């Protein structure tokens, strides 16, 4: 395993390859997109936190399995592990030099939650897999401290809905009907809301001040504040919830005209879109691979394809036929070199003997018949 450009059996990236973490992901993304768009074909490979949570690896990959049996075994025993390094190589044929030019990228991936409502992913590790990676010099700090976050399509949809709901609260404040009073305020919260309204009244009367910061309060209290202010002050104020480094949330109330309110709303929406792109993270790379329609090459790649779809698109279906349809939608053109090596003219018993003719082809020579 290792990156798609790693030495066979090792984890060292190809010299000249680009290592990409959360720190340089944004700046490197354009280079990755360009390489994918320019490529004639792609190669992928993944590193996982484990292979099997039940049967031994040899039992899990029994050579007598039908494709459906293999899929069901991997789906049941392998999907709770994490794909935390993704290797990508792009290949472009140089007609002048009669050879392929390769670019390699090593992505370190970790599902760091964006906020308290983001998915808090649980995964398992297998000691033999971790030991193997450690012996190959794998840098786990790059994964756990600087790994690129990601969301699958359902998680992205839920996050978009959260932003839309918060925006409604800030603008129409939850879509409430400002023509009628808000829902009844609980008796034990009436004094709290009364003091908030008094502070807003003082703010509106104070020509020398434009904002007031409320003390941290609970989510229920913030909802009551939104309801009260949307009815009493449908225009002329802007309400924003801010989170401190200690994860405490408080509200800032600002007085402003309509033009200023629209300007702030546009800025906030731009920030939200940027946060959303950051949260989707590495999934954007997988979307680019899928949208390219390029040939994707791997070696014994069923597990790589399953994990890629499972982590960055959607949960795997129970039915094998549905999985094949899904995989074809994501990666319409796949080539597994392990299968290729079992057919002529590449049929050999060991991977070592396969590399030599492949190197001849990649270097511009011709494969011997």
UniProtKB/TrEMBL annotation:
Domain R3H: 190-257
GO terms (BP aspect): nuclear-transcribed mRNA poly(A) tail shortening; priRNA 3'-end processing; siRNA 3'-end processing
GO molecular function: 3'-5'-RNA exonuclease activity; RNA binding
InterPro entries in alphabetical order: CAF1_poly(A)_ribonucleases, PARN_R3H, R3H_dom, R3H_dom_sf, RNase_CAF1, RNaseH-like_sf, RNaseH_sf
Family annotation (PROSITE patterns): R3H
Organism domain of life: Eukaryota
This protein's GO CC annotations: nucleus
Family: Belongs to the CAF1 family.
Protein name: Poly(A)-specific ribonuclease PARN
Lineage: Eukaryota, Metazoa, Chordata, Craniata, Vertebrata
């Amino acid at each position: 395993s290792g990156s798609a450009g790693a030495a066979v059996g090792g984890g060292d990236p190809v010299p000249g390859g680009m290592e990409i973490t959360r720190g340089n992901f944004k700046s490197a993304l354009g280079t990755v997109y360009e390489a994918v768009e320019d490529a004639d074909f792609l190669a992928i490979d993944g590193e996982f936190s484990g292979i099997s949570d039940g049967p031994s690896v040899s039992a899990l990959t029994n050579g007598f399995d039908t494709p459906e049996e293999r899929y069901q075994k991997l789906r049941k025993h392998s999907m709770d592990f994490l794909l935390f390094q993704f290797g990508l190589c792009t290949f472009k044929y140089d007609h002048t030099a009669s050879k392929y030019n390769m670019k390699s990228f090593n992505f370190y991936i970790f599902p760091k939650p964006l906020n308290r409502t983001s998915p808090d992913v649980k995964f398992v590790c297998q000691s033999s897999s971790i030991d193997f990676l450690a012996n190959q010099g794998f840098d786990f700090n790059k994964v756990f401290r600087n790994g690129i976050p990601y969301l699958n399509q359902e998680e992205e949809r839920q996050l978009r809905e959260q932003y839309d709901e918060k925006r409604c609260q800030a603008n129409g404040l939850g879509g409430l009907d400002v023509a009628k009073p808000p829902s009844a305020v609980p008796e034990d919260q009436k004094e709290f809301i009364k003091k908030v309204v008094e502070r807003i009244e003082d703010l509106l009367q104070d020509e020398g001040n434009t904002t007031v910061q409320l003390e941290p309060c609970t989510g229920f209290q913030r909802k009551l504040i939104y309801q009260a202010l949307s009815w009493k002050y449908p225009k002329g104020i802007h309400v924003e919830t801010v989170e401190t480094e200690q994860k405490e949330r408080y509200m800032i109330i600002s007085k402003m005209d309509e033009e200023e309110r629209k300007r702030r709303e546009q800025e906030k929406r731009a920030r939200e879109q940027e946060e959303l792109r950051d949260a989707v993270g590495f999934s954007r790379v997988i979307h680019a691979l899928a949208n390219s329609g390029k040939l994707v090459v791997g070696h014994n790649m069923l597990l790589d394809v399953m994990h890629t779809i499972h982590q960055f698109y959607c949960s795997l279906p129970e039915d094998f036929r549905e999985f094949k349809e899904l995989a074809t939608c994501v990666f319409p053109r796949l080539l597994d070199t392990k299968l290729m090596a079992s057919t002529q003219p590449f049929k050999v018993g060991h991977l070592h003997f396969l590399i030599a003719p492949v190197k001849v082809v990649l270097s511009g020579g011709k494969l011997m018949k």
